[in-house]
Amino acid sequence: MSSLRKVSDSTVRRLSLYLRILRQIRARGETTISSEQLADEGGLTSAQVRKDLSFFGNFGVRGRGYDVVALEQAVQSILGLDRVWPAVVVGAGRLGSALTAYPDFARQGFRILALFDTDPAKHGRRFGDAEVLPLSELESFARRERVSIGIVATPAAAAQDVANQLIGAGILGILNFAPARIEVPPHVSLRQVNLAVELEGLSFAIVGAGQRANGGTR
Amino acid sequence: MSSLRKVSDSTVRRLSLYLRILRQIRARGETTISSEQLADEGGLTSAQVRKDLSFFGNFGVRGRGYDVVALEQAVQSILGLDRVWPAVVVGAGRLGSALTAYPDFARQGFRILALFDTDPAKHGRRFGDAEVLPLSELESFARRERVSIGIVATPAAAAQDVANQLIGAGILGILNFAPARIEVPPHVSLRQVNLAVELEGLSFAIVGAGQRANGGTR
DNA sequence: ACTTGTGAACTGTTTCACAGCA
DNA sequence: TGCTGTGAAACAGTTCACAAGT
């Protein structure tokens, strides 16, 4: 079964991609798919697909390919999406409320139970099923509701403090959108997302592409 | 000067990180920083920092370190952040409007001129300086205003079509938040951001951490 | 005949360790 | 002496190519 050989971050990201593709394929009514087709849909190579999947088991049949439904199930389970993840969003600004309503989250079993914010003007507002509560209630709420995942969408200055409260409440993982590095103990999983980094990467690529087009050095 | 040796994506992402750290350091009034300090602040190694910077020039002084202001300037320029980037957001849903108002974007010179949406109920709404316009005006607006960057925050099904319109209008780069792969010609830079992938990566990490804690197979 | 699963080769990235310079 | 810049070594990730299974 699922061995714990270290799996690279890139492999995990591609698993998410495979899952999305498999769902589309299934919606089209296809029952079988080859690594070649899966690769084409995702803009990868077939060897990459086979290698990624082989970390977790032998899902294919030689000469035939992969069963779409079975592989979808398997990937879903590998990613831990075969369960409900109780989550909270901290920071009920534009980003926090957008994330709360992000349809793909609910679809994957991430259930956002509440938002938290310091601003009293926001308390009581609802986004979907979730209500905005005072930040002071974060820790007791998270503990009581056995929240597994905290999504941090606060200003940078508040991020570490919020993370500490989440950790104190026994959270298992944090998805941090605040543009600040936060420290967590080893038993807590952390993922940083920085939207500015993405845009800056794009700007770098554009500048580089311009230089290439004009005949830059090399 | 800036040679065009291929620089890895990870290096570019770290440059964004260095820039953020340098600004903090400058705000604290420090004038000089070593690769060691920079590494500590960013959770990296000093060799990594030096290697990254050495792709672009010799910014440091042996025995002394880097001048904070000069290095900040240099990194800013490498990333193409020493100019204004006219941008548009397509899709005026929660995510699109959150991105429009995202303070770090404006701070880096990304100027969002307008949003576009098919929904007539949204036309005329304003987010900051930007107004929501009909999607049908996207191409002419982008061409007329010489828009460089398009931020796509539409449903997956609309993403490629929107991208084509942006490309037709002479855009240079696309930041795609729609959970769909889009194709662009080689002269257009593309960056995909998929928020579900990030959460799924977190869920994978939590499941893996749990197995480790219970003594799963090595 | 077809397509997986996987060692081996290759390519890219990070870390090491030290020469060179202020 | 202190710290950068950088080849060389180590490590990680990807691609190749083919044996094995249906």
Give the arrangement of secondary structure elements.
The structure is a homodimer of 218-residue chains.
Chain A: H1 9-27, E1 32-33, H2 35-42, H3 46-54, E2 60-61, E3 65-67, H4 68-78, E4 85-90, H5 94-101, H6 103-107, E5 110-117, E6 126-127, E7 130-134, H7 138-144, E8 149-152, H8 156-168, E9 173-176, E10 189-192, H9 195-213
Parallel strand pairs in A: 4-5, 4-8, 5-7, 8-9, 9-10
Antiparallel strand pairs in A: 1-3, 2-3, 6-7
Chain B binds a DNA duplex (22 and 22 nucleotides) through helix 3 and strand 2.
Task: Outline the structure in words.
Two copies of one chain form a homodimer. Chain A is an alpha/beta fold and 218 residues long. In chain A, 45% of the residues lie in helices and 18% in strands. A seven-stranded mixed sheet of chain A has the order 6-7-5-4-8-9-10, with helices on both faces. Chain A has a three-stranded antiparallel sheet with strand order 1-3-2. In chain A, α1 (9-27) packs antiparallel against α4 (68-78) and α2 (35-42) crosses α3. The longest helix of chain A has 19 residues, at 9-27. Chains A and B meet through α1, α5, β9 and α9 of A and α1, α5, β9, β10 and α9 of B. The structure holds a DNA duplex (22 and 22 nucleotides).
